[in-house]
From TrEMBL:
GO biological-process terms attached to the record: carbohydrate metabolic process
Keyword hit for Oxidoreductase: no
Species of origin: Ornithinimicrobium tianjinense
The Alpha-D-phosphohexomutase C-terminal domain, residue ranges: 395-470
NCBIfam families the UniProt entry points to: PRK09542.1 (NF007088)
Source superkingdom: Bacteria
Protein name listed in UniProt: Phosphomannomutase/phosphoglucomutase
InterPro entries given in the database record: A-D-PHexomutase_a/b/a-I, A-D-PHexomutase_a/b/a-I/II/III, A-D-PHexomutase_a/b/a-II, A-D-PHexomutase_a/b/a-III, A-D-PHexomutase_C, A-D-PHexomutase_C_sf, Alpha-D-phosphohexomutase_SF
Listed GO MF terms: intramolecular phosphotransferase activity; metal ion binding
Family of this protein: Belongs to the phosphohexose mutase family.
Length: 477
């Protein structure tokens, strides 16, 4: 058992969620206290009707979910337990039931970790600027007092009911994208022993869909015995790539541990850039809106500032509006809600849909990709080739002693080369003259790190800009 009086929630409550080691940082007692704080800070003051709680396949998740529920019901708030689900399954439950939500998962983190993703009803986010800081502070106060029971226990506790919404989740997603008219496709799916092992059979392997699904690692296992459930790391895609080639598949899909992110691999076994997926889905969503009679100029797509320029160019070419945001799901969701955007995408393979309560769902993005591929005869690589017109570095992290000084060195270098500065999120420098390039240099919120992303019209230019900027970032003082 952990000493809960020694827990520092500032180390556990992150910008967008809760994440920590079990049981040292996240024990049942800590979960109960966080449930208490969630009820007092968000649920009761905002008039939420109750809380829906789900969890992933980690060994610690069921106990932590029950402990959190105990803190909530002690405040007189009713709880609906949906059991095993993906994070987007929890968002579906929050949206369809009209309840605040808590999802117990550490996504792609190793087995010793767990965490909590919180939302208001209709999957509206709870982040550091929208209630999570207050939840952390109240929970820390309760822990420091050594009182792990609510100080304002309700006279009549809430109730706990259990339900299974997997079929409803699958039916809802399939109602949004109809695959039945497409050509037959063979798709290899790597669930990484995560929650896609539950959701993919429900969504893609039932009914009369023209799909042959080749499963990899569908067994739910929170120890991740085959590889980490993080599809953004190239080594975690190797089994999927090999299986796509071995089966002559049309494409491959890789999900992370809580199945809210999806990475696509083409028929050659090559990863498809999440920016290309964002552009492809954006195009489909814009055209659907226009077909329904809405003027393209009234349709908005949101993307974060380190997705490819091809995303904004695709949206502009269709006459719609592209809104650029800071990196992070709370920023994307806020901009989507503000602009009533039809779709949003991030470089991290998070995809957001107005029809899904502005929340992210890798499964719905996968359905769009499958539909787009099945509606025509070209292979996956050809389908996305037109969106891969730039060369990108990917994200490169550097530990620096003086973040401000390093950033200023880079700014001066880029301005000398005709680039224009933008400070929406860290420093973005863009050069529009030939050779065209841009880069983003963003500081970490918690570490002395700078995160660099570079994109250019050709690989040689990208590598030159990347190397020059890294040299300045890593320059010894």
């Amino acid at each position: 058992m952990s000493d809960v009086t020694a827990v520092r929630l500032a180390d556990v409550v992150k910008a967008y969620d809760v994440r920590g080691l079990v049981p040292e940082q996240l024990s049942p007692q800590v979960a109960t206290t966080l449930g208490t704080a969630f009820a007092q800070v968000v649920v009761l003051p905002e008039g939420e009707r109750g809380v829906v709680i789900g969890h992933d396949m980690r060994d610690s998740s069921p106990e932590l979910a029950r402990a959190f529920a105990a803190g909530v019901v002690a405040q007189g708030v009713d709880v609906t337990m949906v059991g095993l689900c993906s994070t987007d399954g929890l968002y579906h439950a929050s949206g369809s039931l009209g309840l605040a939500g808590a999802m117990f998962t550490a996504s792609h983190n190793p087995a010793r970790y767990n965490g909590i993703k919180l939302c208001r009803s209709a999957a509206r986010p709870v982040g550091q600027d929208s209630g999570l800081t207050e939840i952390r502070d109240l929970a820390q106060w309760l822990l420091d007092r050594g009182d792990h029971h609510p100080p304002m226990r309700a006279a009549v506790p809430g109730t706990i009911t259990e339900t299974d919404l997997l079929d409803d989740y699958a039916a809802y997603l399939r109602s949004l994208v109809d695959l039945r008219g497409g050509r037959p496709l063979t798709v290899v799916v790597d669930a990484g022993n995560g929650m896609a092992g539950l959701t993919v059979p429900a969504v893609l392997q039932r009914g009369d869909l023209p799909l042959t699904v080749v499963p990899l690692y569908f067994e739910l296992d929170g120890t991740f015995p085959h590889h980490e459930a993080n599809p953004l790391e190239p080594e975690n895609l190797r089994d999927l790539q090999a299986a796509v080639l071995a089966h002559g598949a049309d494409l491959g899909l890789a999900f992370d541990g809580d199945a809210d992110r999806c990475v696509v691999v083409d028929e050659r076994g090559e990863p498809v850039s999440p920016s290309a997926v964002t552009a492809l889905v954006a195009e489909r969503e814009i055209r659907k809106e226009v077909a329904s009679g809405r003027p393209a100029a009234e349709v908005t797509v949101v993307h974060n500032l380190i997705t490819s320029r091809a995303v904004g160019e695709t949206v502009d070419a269709l006459g719609a509006r592209a809104v650029r945001t800071r990196v992070g799901h709370s920023f994307v969701k806020a901009q989507m809600a503000e602009h009533e955007a039809v779709f949003g995408g991030e470089h991290s393979a998070h995809y957001y849909f107005r029809e899904f309560w502005y929340a992210d769902t890798g499964m719905l993005a996968a359905l769009h990709v499958l539909a787009a591929l099945g509606e025509q005869d070209a292979p996956m690589s050809s389908l996305v080739e037109r969106f891969d017109r730039y060369s990108a570095s990917g994200e490169i992290n550097s530990t620096v002693a003086d973040v401000a000084a390093a950033t200023e060195r880079v700014r001066a270098w880029a301005q000398d080369r005709g680039a224009v500065a933008d400070t929406l999120d860290g420093l973005t420098m863009s050069r529009e003259d030939d050779p065209v390039w841009w880069f983003s240099l963003r500081p970490s919120n918690t570490e002395p790190l700078l995160r660099l992303n570079v994109e250019a019209a050709d690989r040689t230019t990208m590598e030159q800009v990347r190397d020059d900027v890294l040299g300045l970032v890593r320059q010894e003082p």
